[in-house]
Design a protein that fits this description.
alpha/beta, 8-stranded parallel sheet, 17% strand
Length: 226
């Protein structure tokens, strides 16, 4: 059975090839999505040099962070955030929240941050594939919502955009959803956008080819293979 180190190295090699093909000057960060993995596997990956991990449930993030309190891990929250979980998530001081999917959610987080006198780094999620199953603002409203968050939410450090690629076997459809997000991201760099979180296990090479600089990869690293 292929070990975690081998699988991580394999993924990193694929990322590097795609990165160089896009631009030798491009810098890419990998978040290992550990939502289905136990602490032992996260620890093993940590000892392989991986430092950033992503969880999509607040309770799981809390439990794993508590178990691994002695490790200086960079915890990312990548799932849908329910309003009643905002305080708990803020108590965990996540490195970055990828999935702020509306102005309303941003304003709720802002209220909680103001009460706690703390700030948090976030990304605005865009539904660039126009799929009902996905959360996020529409591409048409993205720029306006982005500016409103900047203006109305001083405790939120809005650093860029996140999207999920189109759920399709057609590469053109996946590329289109990433390109839409990249174009929006480019238009927002003048107001501080620097992070473009796109690409998961099944499409991250396409995401890199379209400018992603933060990847969320889980199953290709953690899934058992023989």
């Amino acid at each position: 059975m292929q070990g975690l180190r081998e699988k991580l190295d394999f993924v990193l090699q694929k990322i590097e090839r795609a990165r160089i093909a896009y631009s030798r000057h491009h810098i890419i960060k990998l978040v290992a999505v550990s939502k289905y993995s136990e602490v032992e596997k996260i620890t093993e990956l940590y000892h392989c040099g991986q430092r950033a991990f992503g969880e999509n449930k607040v309770q799981d993030l809390r439990d794993k962070k508590q178990e691994m309190a002695f490790f200086p891990i960079e915890w990312h929250f990548i799932g849908n955030l329910q309003r009643n979980k905002i305080n708990l998530l803020l108590d965990l001081n996540p490195f970055l929240i990828h999935s702020v999917d509306s102005l309303e959610l941003a304003q709720e987080i802002e209220k909680k941050c103001a009460l706690q006198n703390k700030s948090v780094r976030i990304l605005l999620q865009v539904n660039s594939s126009y799929e009902e199953s996905k959360s996020g603002v529409s591409p048409e409203e993205c720029v306006e919502v982005y500016h409103q968050i900047l203006q109305k939410c001083p405790h939120l450090k809005l650093e860029g955009l996140m999207c999920m690629g189109a759920h399709s076997i057609k590469i053109d459809a996946i590329e289109k959803s990433f390109k839409i997000t990249k174009d929006l991201f480019d238009s927002l760099q003048s107001v501080g956008a620097k992070t473009l979180s796109m690409g998961m296990s099944n499409d991250y090479e396409i995401a890199i080819a379209n400018g992603a600089n933060l990847l969320r990869i889980g199953s290709e690293i953690f899934k058992s293979s023989f």
